[in-house]
Design goal:
Layout: H1 14-36, E1 39-43, H2 50-58, E2 66-70, E3 72-74, H3 84-91, H4 109-120, E4 128-132, E5 160-163, E6 171-174, H5 176-180, E7 185-190, H6 192-204, E8 223-227
Parallel strand pairs: 1-2, 1-4, 4-7, 7-8
Antiparallel strand pairs: 3-6, 5-6
Bound molecules: the ligand O=C1O[C@H](COP(=O)(O)O)[C@@H](O)[C@H](O)[C@H]1O.
Enzyme class: hydrolase
Family: Belongs to the glucosamine/galactosamine-6-phosphate isomerase family. 6-phosphogluconolactonase subfamily.
Function: Hydrolysis of 6-phosphogluconolactone to 6-phosphogluconate.
């Protein structure tokens, strides 16, 4: 198995990796606020990031100057157990206007994606993005086999796109460009299964088959925070 450039040495539990990621990210956010007066951040949903988000929520940060959004959102109510917004709000002491939701709120997802993309445009490029990955190598809600992820196709995508993964609820997702073009990128994964999947994916360099490849294609590669 080829070595992935994992950022950490010695910190291997999800708790320690999460704390390290939170501390590194906090420094990036402070720097962004210092330089530009504001910071924009996208964070993942799912099960892995709760400890990281909790650790970030404990950091001494200028929250009124920070806008947080999810990398993707399931089309569920914001108080649903599967809502990424719900987890993010539970973990972070956000300012009242410090959260940029990716919610359709009953609208067709295509309409919502267009409107939310226009609203997010002034925040781009994002100062920081933390991305999770499924064992199938999906990132945000960009899933394997989606032809929109091809090199010639993705340039036409707006910043937010609808996504209809088989067997799961529909979603809204940040598109490849805002994820890949962030000023600072991190990939948070846990477990040998995902590490093996990441290693195999990077060997293919195929973002349609393995969306995680999108993060490694151009510009700086993400820092990989891997927990055993
Ligand atoms: O559905 C999602 O899955 C991925 C991975 O989640 P995990 O539960 O395996 O950690 C996540 O990054 C994404 O934001 C989420 O909506």
């Amino acid at each position: 198995m080829n070595a992935i450039p994992v950022t950490l040495a010695g910190a291997t539990t999800l708790t320690r990796v999460s704390e390290r990621l939170a501390a590194d990210l906090a420094a990036i956010l402070r720097q962004a606020v210092g330089e530009r007066g504001h910071a924009s951040l996208a964070v993942p949903g799912g099960t892995t990031p709760r400890e990281f988000l909790t650790a970030l929520g404990r950091c001494d940060l200028p929250w009124p100057q920070i806008t947080v959004m999810p990398t993707d959102e399931r089309d569920v109510a914001p108080d649903d157990m599967r809502s990424n917004e719900r987890m993010i709000r539970e973990c972070l002491p956000l300012a009242s206007d410090g959260y940029a939701p990716l919610r359709a709120d009953g609208r067709p997802l295509e309409d919502a994606a267009m409107e939310l993309g226009n609203r997010l445009a002034p925040l781009l490029p994002l100062d920081a993005v933390v991305v999770g990955m499924g064992a199938d190598t999906h990132i945000a809600s960009l899933f394997p086999g989606d032809p929109r992820l091809g090199r010639n196709e993705r340039g036409a995508l707006p910043p937010v796109v609808p996504s209809y993964p088989a067997g799961l609820e529909p979603r809204l997702s940040l598109a490849p460009s805002p994820l890949a073009a962030a000023r600072w990128k991190a990939l948070l994964i846990s477990g040998d299964e995902k590490r093996s999947a990441l290693t195999a994916a990077l060997e293919t360099k195929d973002p349609v088959a393995h969306p995680v490849c999108l993060l490694f294609e151009s510009g700086a590669s993400p820092r990989v925070y891997w927990a055993e």
